[in-house]
Write a structure and sequence with these properties.
single chain; mainly beta; eight-stranded parallel barrel
Length: 679
């Protein structure tokens, strides 16, 4: 079914949506088959243009894979064309086309007519095409796309991540009755849900519905609401007559939910469903929408609170690309990524540095992972991108407001005002903050700084977090503790967050004596592991840190980089770019964060040893572990570390291959991990 996102405007506490589904009145077509041509092509928008020689591709698609495979990549124009039969069943209905995202600027033509243009590569957009197509006839779609630099668009450059071009998320055509829940309102669902009042026995929500009619005549219509719990049990129903006196009408209805269950992160990500139906002229348009109830706040001394109870916020940052596909991912890829974020035990996820796929937010809702969602206002600025930054913020908020997983809106990352507080980026931040609060007074704004505690851009947003890379770009690993303690003491009223921390780690490099940081060609995996073993306890032992995020969950591409032995790659991920290998540091965090049993031998890729006696390090959250070498029992150790680390010291290897096995019993289950080392 066609999926969309849900809009929510100004209310007291956060509610959010997951998947949206439509009843049969909303017919839909998924547009996957396209013709493609890279470069400037004249008159390619015309209906009778001959594109038979063009490449045949399937959406999702990107034309920027050279960013991964070569140094530098194509930044320019391309065209997509497709012929689609508009079903006879759409006759007499309103017809729309929706793009979940196109990178980065696009113009849409239908049967030679320009339908609309969109600037920005990460948010959805939706156009009505009723007047441009005919049911039971073919329609010719032509999409002009470019990822070339545009200083009026954010991000203004690609210094930190690639600016991929293409139709890299799904495209769909769908239809509605003449009077419908409006799908063109910032490409949202047109249904807005808000928590207005709450106590233990009752929650009063407000459901707001944007209705779009195809004419302005007075119409007597009907609106229906049905609220269901997670078990699909009907909790409340409301039906009322309404009068539509304009093409756009907003209807608001309060509804009570007795004995509410709140969306409570990983502990209980409880979702309700509301079905909203508009019935006019005997035709029904209906949307099924999941949502959750929650409150969230920050205390500068005590950290984060979810539903008025302390809730530690630790997790990872994540980009949206795989080595094999770039950003042109299918639903199964997004789901696998979120499964790994869930597996590691993260309670929070920073979706860097832009709006991600609909399914990512839906997965976060269902898994109980709190999300920092942000716009791509990153690093450098031109002073001319203000209008587009505001547009992308409105799209981010209005398309995603109702996800219970989202708890903060990120306004910028490492944007610097070196000269004064009068620079354009400073005034733009104030404007963005106002827009965020006007659209959504229920959530705080935040930003990620790489400056000091005080700066021209600092502490404008409601919350401030810092990207800190002690021991990699500057200082020593232990300096994280000094900075946190001194900053907390000097600025007790400022809540401290760590928006990024991490170092590079290449699984093909294991000799820790050859480290060449931060931009050399040798980033041994063991050094990355050592860094996290030192840094996580520093953060763990300071509950006043309102959030912390490892940079990054996955390795990702930066065109033109040449560091750590693999070109065009940022190696700071806990998982390799192709998703094939979870690095040692992944299992370190899984042992510390996850409730699932973990038993893992480290340094397994350092498989050839030159010393006879070695230490064998294990990550585990199990109480007792037994070590075997070549089937001989060597030792048994109890877990005493508060960071889930165990070391069997001075273990002797035999010449040749050695099978290292560890076992642990827990709740009648036996867990085992095995590696082979050569001496």
């Amino acid at each position: 079914m066609f999926k969309n996102t849900l809009l929510l405007l100004t209310f007291l506490s956060t509610i959010a949506q997951g998947q949206i589904s439509f009843v049969k009145e909303r017919n839909h077509i998924s547009l996957t088959e396209w013709k493609f041509k890279k470069g400037t092509v004249y008159n390619a928008f015309q209906k009778d243009f001959d594109s038979t020689s063009w490449e045949e591709i399937k959406v999702p698609h990107t034309y920027s894979m050279d960013a991964i495979n070569e140094v530098g990549y194509y930044r320019g124009q391309a065209w997509y064309r497709s012929r689609v039969r508009i079903p006879e069943s759409m006759g007499g209905q309103r017809i729309f086309i929706r793009f979940e995202a196109v990178g980065h600027d696009s113009k849409v033509f239908v049967n030679g007519k320009e339908i609309g243009a969109h600037i920005g590569g990460y948010s959805a957009f939706c156009y009505e095409i009723t007047d441009a197509v005919t049911a039971d006839h073919d329609a010719i779609l032509a999409i002009h796309v470019t990822n070339e630099p545009n200083f009026k668009r954010i991000p203004v450059n690609d210094k930190l991540f690639n600016i991929y071009g293409g139709i890299y998320r799904p495209v769909q055509i769908f239809s509605t009755p003449k009077t419908a829940i409006d799908p063109t309102y910032y490409a949202s669902s047109g249904v807005f849900v808000a928590l207005k009042e709450k106590n233990k026995s009752n929650a009063r929500i407000e459901v707001r519905t944007h209705i779009a009619a195809s004419d302005t005549s007075n119409k007597r219509s009907k609106i229906e609401y049905h609220i269901f719990n997670r078990d699909k049990k009907l909790l409340a129903s409301v039906t009322k007559d309404i009068y539509l006196s304009a093409t756009d009408t907003v209807i608001t209805e309060p509804i009570n939910i007795e004995n509410p269950i709140y969306w409570n992160g990983r502990k209980n990500p409880y979702l309700y469903t509301v079905k909203v139906a508009i019935i006019s002229d005997g035709k029904k348009d209906e949307i099924h929408q999941s949502f959750g109830l929650k409150t969230f706040k920050i205390d500068a001394q005590k950290g984060s609170y979810l539903n008025d109870a302390p809730y530690r916020m630790y997790g990872v940052c994540m980009h949206q690309e795989w080595k094999q596909y770039g950003p042109a991912l299918k639903g199964e890829h997004h789901i696998k990524d979120m499964e790994m974020v869930d597996e590691i035990g993260a309670t929070t996820l920073r979706l860097s540095h832009y709006q991600h796929s609909d399914i990512t937010y839906q997965q976060a809702d269902e898994k109980g992972i709190l999300v920092w969602a942000e716009i791509p206002y990153v690093h450098d600025y031109s002073g001319r991108e203000g209008d587009n930054a505001k547009q992308q913020l409105r799209e981010l908020i209005l398309q995603n407001y109702n996800h219970p997983s989202i708890y903060v809106w990120g306004l910028w990352n490492e944007v610097r005002a070196y000269q004064s507080s009068e620079e354009p980026c400073v005034s733009l931040t104030h404007e963005l903050k106002k827009i965020a609060h006007d659209l959504d007074p229920t959530r705080l704004t935040t930003s990620a700084s790489d400056r000091g505690m005080e700066s021209n851009m600092g502490n404008i947003t409601d919350l401030q977090a810092w990207n800190k890379y002690y021991g990699w770009y500057y200082g020593y690993y232990k300096d994280m503790a000094t900075w946190l303690d001194e900053s907390h003491k000097k600025y007790p009223d400022i809540a401290l967050g760590i928006s990024e921390y991490g170092i590079g780690g290449n699984i093909f490099q294991q000799d820790s004596t050859r480290l060449e940081k931060p931009s050399g060609n040798y980033f041994p995996e063991s050094e990355q592991t050592k860094y996290h073993e030192i840094t996580w306890p520093i953060i763990k032992d300071r509950p006043f840190v309102w959030s912390s995020f490892v940079w990054n969950m996955f390795d990702f591409s930066v065109g033109g980089w040449n560091r750590g032995g693999i070109p065009n790659l940022n190696h700071k991920g806990l998982v390799t770019y192709d998703r094939a290998v979870k690095k040692d540091a992944f299992y370190f965090y899984k042992a510390n964060w996850s409730d699932e049993p973990v038993l893992y031998i480290t340094e397994r890729r350092n498989s050839i040893r030159t010393a006879k006696n070695i230490d064998i390090k294990v990550y585990t959250n199990l109480p007792e572990v037994t070590l075997f070498i070549n089937e001989k029992k060597i030792a048994k150790e109890k877990l005493t570390s508060d960071t889930s680390t165990m070391v069997f010291k001075n273990v002797s290897l035999s010449k040749g291959e050695n099978t290292i096995k560890i076992t642990a019993k827990y709740q009648k289950e036996v867990y085992t991990d095995t590696i082979v080392l050569s001496y």
